[in-house]
Amino acid sequence: MLFFSVTVYCDNHYIDDCLKPGSSPELLYNQEISKDGQFLQYQREIVRIPTTGFSDAPITCLTVINLDNESVAGYPHVKAGGVGFNYVTLELESQLSRGYDFQITVYYDSAEVITGNTILEELNED
Q1: Where exactly are the structural domains of the chain?
Q2: pTM listed for this prediction
Q3: Which residue among 12, 35, 106, 107 is the one 20 to 30 A from 23 at the CA level?
Q4: List of residues 6+ apart from 55 with CB closer than 8 A
């Protein structure tokens, strides 16, 4: 029996996963994250959005925009969650001896929020 584990990395300096932002986009996260470079080292950081727990509805839009020059820019990677999930975990990584500077924006569709009362109402209808 063989088991495979695959982590997908790409050479893009940005993430733009925002094809269907929803009918009522609600801002979940909007922050610039940067780190200075250090000689002969890579800079890495894990960012979870939201930092604890989960959003009120699945994420509908995720953008990570590189604010540095492409030739020295870092690489963002989705490690877990993302669009369609109620959280996202990102890994931000620099090039050797460089830093990074990203603007991260995450939205969910507030029309998709399910409250405890909505669930109870649906159960009572059955």
Answers
A1: 15-109
A2: 0.78
A3: 12
A4: 28, 49, 86, 87, 108
